[in-house]
């Protein structure tokens, strides 16, 4: 394949049809995405759903669908995101399922710098992370979206599914807020020479380019790690009305009627250890 531009660049074309396989599981913004046509919005949602799916644990259901997944990715309109995903599915389709399982656990369960729990990078092991989890869950409920409690609300596949369902504005706001964490995950996967780096790169092409402040913050995270606190974390729903809320905390509007979705993927961890 030809060399790709930076994952921070690129746009989507119109979407292909979405086969039944693409299942629904589930930075402070520099700027929001430009106004998109309905076709562009649908294509963006498909990319987000594919990224969500490919970042889930490679269980038997997922690995048995690799041929169809490859077909879906090959049918995407030409874009940097589509080419990154093609690079990943080429690798994904060629691996033994047991190798995939071991690699996934090593990359996402055993390494702090590539954990998929986004609030960890912003708040670390502090009490503010509990409030951030509660706030994110409130955002989902305010949009009428019920994750069914199968996974923590900051698990990246869950955040991606919310973004795909709600759209580029409010739906993608959590991704923009946690862009620095996404950059760190991408860098850690690149350093580990993991093919999952292509999936993160595809996602980053959909977000605003990083600022100098973003790059400096990621460098600090690499050098120092996330914030730490010498106290235990309470469950994420126990912080009342914002006792530990950071500045700019999302205040949800009145909750919409709940829309049930299939449960999020089964987790083998509750966050980085």
How would you describe what is shown here?
The chain has 273 residues and is mostly helical. Strands 1-2 form a two-stranded parallel ribbon. Helix 1 packs antiparallel against helix 8. The radius of gyration is 18 Å and the shape is globular. It starts with 37 loop residues before the first helix and ends in a 13-residue tail after the last strand.
Keywords:
273 residues; two-stranded parallel ribbon; 2 strands; mainly alpha; globular; single chain
Q: Would you report the number of β strands?
A: 2
The coarse overall form would be globular
Low-confidence stretches: 9-19, 23-33, 230-262
Number of helices: 12
Structural class from helices and strands?
Answer: mainly alpha
Mean pLDDT, all residues: 79
Helix content: 40-55%
What profile does the largest beta sheet have? 2 strands, parallel
Rg for CA atoms: 18 Å
Distance between the termini: 37 Å
Q: What's the arrangement of strands in the largest beta sheet?
A: 1-2
> What is the ordering of alpha helices and beta strands?
HHHHHHHEHHHHHE
The oligomeric state is: single chain
Strand content: under 5%
């Amino acid at each position: 394949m030809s060399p790709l531009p930076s994952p921070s660049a690129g746009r989507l074309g119109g979407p292909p049809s979405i086969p039944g396989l693409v299942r629904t599981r589930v930075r402070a913004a520099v700027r929001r995405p430009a106004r998109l046509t309905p076709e562009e919005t649908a294509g963006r949602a498909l990319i987000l759903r594919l990224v969500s799916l490919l970042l889930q644990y490679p269980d038997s259901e997922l690995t048995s669908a690799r041929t169809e997944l490859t077909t879906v990715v090959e049918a995407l309109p030409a874009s940097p995101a589509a080419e990154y995903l093609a690079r990943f599915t080429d690798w994904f389709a060629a691996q033994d399922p047991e190798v995939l399982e071991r690699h996934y656990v090593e990359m996402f369960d055993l390494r702090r710098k590539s954990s998929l729990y986004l609030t960890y990078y912003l708040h670390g092991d502090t009490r503010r992370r509990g409030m951030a989890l509660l706030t994110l869950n409130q955002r989902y409920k305010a949009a009428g979206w019920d994750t069914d409690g199968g996974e923590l609300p900051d698990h990246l596949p869950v955040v991606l599914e919310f973004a795909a369902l709600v759209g580029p504005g409010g739906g993608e706001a959590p991704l923009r807020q946690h862009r620095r964490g996404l950059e760190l995950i991408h860098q850690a996967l690149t350093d580990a020479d993991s093919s999952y780096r292509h999936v993160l790169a595809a996602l980053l092409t959909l977000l605003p380019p990083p600022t100098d402040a973003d790059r400096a913050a990621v460098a600090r995270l690499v050098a120092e790690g996330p914030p730490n606190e010498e106290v235990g974390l309470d469950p994420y729903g126990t912080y009342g009305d914002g006792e530990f809320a950071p500045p700019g905390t999302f205040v949800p509007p009145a909750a919409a009627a709940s829309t049930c979705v299939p449960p999020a993927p089964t987790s083998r961890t509750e966050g980085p250890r």
